[in-house]
Design a protein that fits this description.
It is a single chain. By secondary structure, the protein is of the alpha/beta class. The chain folds into two domains: about 120 residues, PH-domain like (Roll); about 200 residues, Leucine-rich repeat, LRR (right-handed beta-alpha superhelix) (Alpha-Beta Horseshoe). It is built from six helices and 22 strands. The strands form four sheets. The protein has a nine-stranded parallel beta sheet, with no helix packed on it. Strands 4-3-2-1-7-6-5 form a seven-stranded antiparallel beta sheet. It starts with a strand and ends with a helix. The protein binds zinc ion. The site of zinc ion (ZN) has 7 residues, from loops. It comes from Neodiprion lecontei (Redheaded pine sawfly). This is Leucine-rich repeat protein 1 isoform X1. Keywords: Leucine-rich repeat, Nucleus, Repeat. InterPro entries: Leu-rich_rpt, Leu-rich_rpt_typical-subtyp, LRR_dom_sf, LRR_domain-containing, PIF1/LRR1_PH.
Length: about 400
């Protein structure tokens, strides 16, 4: 049996004074166990790596001091050996590691004669650890319905298969970095997608996410998604609305919303501080939110929208008068100002929705029902090095102000 893993050999127990020099760097390795070809009663573990192709053999029977499995669910364990006094610090896929240890336990802990015979003879030929990290499914016949995707997959592409639903086995791919599900018929995604720990690129173009109800966008609010997502493509999804969660994707660098039916964007879109490439081609936008003035972009593409500067010249101030806000609004402002974490597990869902739908003044202060509005004309060249436009670079912005002072400062 073989396990493809990363192993760090800690030999510091052999010379306790030299703790640092005894620890090897983690190496991509193959750990196999079986009977030695010429000594069939001797059972050993064979550790091979690209740097040590002959490998190191460790006797197993009576030679394992302890197996530390406290972090086995994270795919980590340590095998402490008596002779030589090495600790093998192993990291691998959690399920594969568990089954590897289970087989060792079955064969040796019972120490019965019969299981030993069942242990295969060790094939000492060098086994290069071949880790499949890319998986491209282009036809339904290739789809691994029964065997599933390799656990080591980092790049998964399931394109143009007319899939109507999201395959939940993708949620088991903890190493997944990029996922391309374009040209399918997916209408909603599971909330667990937002917890995939390494997902950085997500392409969902040419699906039907515009038909999904607001609650099925919760995946976009997942903790890992907010922290790690760098590229998001939601083009050609018949979207009429974008959830405000999108403004919380702090690592997002490229956002494509091309060819949808959007007439407005969330007010917090300008809080995407990492955003560099922003594409809004062919939508129904007549204005952009005032917060876009905070962006620092390399490219913005707003061509094919219905911006109509006619009639928006100068500044138009709403007759809406600023009143004394209610207590809910004051408390909600304090929560957002202090960046307190909130969620349905701590406060009622109605309040979560209320907080998520906050509007933002140019000064960064959140506003709810009590605010001032105005429309200003803004030259997009002030926020982007390259602008792709159908017409005038001056675009109407819908601005929100938390106070008379902020509005006065702007005009
Ligand atoms: Zn303000």
């Amino acid at each position: 049996m073989r396990l493809i893993c990363t192993v760090k050999v800690d030999a510091s127990r052999m010379c306790p004074g030299a703790i640092r020099t005894g620890i090897q760097r983690p190496r991509a390795s193959t750990l196999s166990f079986g009977r030695r070809p010429n000594h069939k009663d001797e059972i050993c573990l064979l550790l091979q790596s690209a740097q040590d192709t002959k490998g190191m053999r460790y006797n197993v029977v009576g030679n394992i001091v302890h197996i530390f499995t406290k972090f086995i669910n994270e795919g980590k364990c340590t095998i402490r050996l008596k002779e030589p006094a090495h600790d093998l610090i192993i990291q691998a896929d959690a399920l594969l590691l568990k089954s590897f240890l289970r087989v060792i336990k079955l064969a040796f802990v019972k120490n019965s004669f019969e299981p030993v015979l069942k242990v295969p003879v060790l094939n000492e030929k060098y086994f290069r650890p071949k880790i499949q990290t890319k998986c491209f499914v282009t036809t339904n016949a290739e789809y691994p319905t029964l065997q599933g995707f390799p656990r080591t997959t980092q790049h998964l592409s399931i394109v143009d298969l007319q899939k109507k639903s999201f395959d939940r086995q993708i949620l088991r791919l903890n190493q997944l970095r990029s996922l391309d599900l374009s040209k399918n018929c997916i209408r909603s995604l599971p909330v667990e997608l937002g917890s995939l720990p390494n997902l950085a690129e997500l392409c969902l173009a040419e699906n039907q996410l515009g038909k999904s109800p607001p609650k099925s966008w919760a995946w976009l609010n997942g903790h890992a998604m907010k922290k790690n997502l760098i590229t998001l493509d939601l083009g050609r999804n018949e979207l009429r609305w974008i959830p405000p969660y999108i403004g919380k994707l702090i690592a997002l660098r490229t956002l494509s919303l091309n060819h949808n039916l959007l007439s407005s964007l969330p007010f917090n879109i300008g809080f995407l501080s990492s955003l560099r490439f922003f594409s809004l081609q062919e939508n129904l936008l007549d204005m952009l939110p005032g917060s876009v003035q905070r962006l620092h972009l390399e490219t913005i593409d707003v061509s094919g929208n219905t911006f109509n500067p006619q009639g928006f010249e100068g500044c138009k101030i709403d007759p809406y008068k600023l009143d004394v806000p209610d207590l809910v609004e004051i408390a909600a402002k304090a929560v957002l100002r202090s960046r307190l974490r909130y969620g349905p597990e701590t406060i009622p869902r109605g309040l979560v929705k209320y907080l998520d739908e906050a509007l933002y003044c140019e000064c960064g202060e959140a506003c709810f029902n009590y605010h001032l509005r105005s429309i200003i004309m803004f030259d997009l060249r002030a926020i982007a090095e390259k602008c792709v436009l159908s017409m005038d670079p001056r675009i109407p912005l819908r601005c929100i102000f938390c106070s008379e002072r902020c509005r006065y400062r702007r005009h």
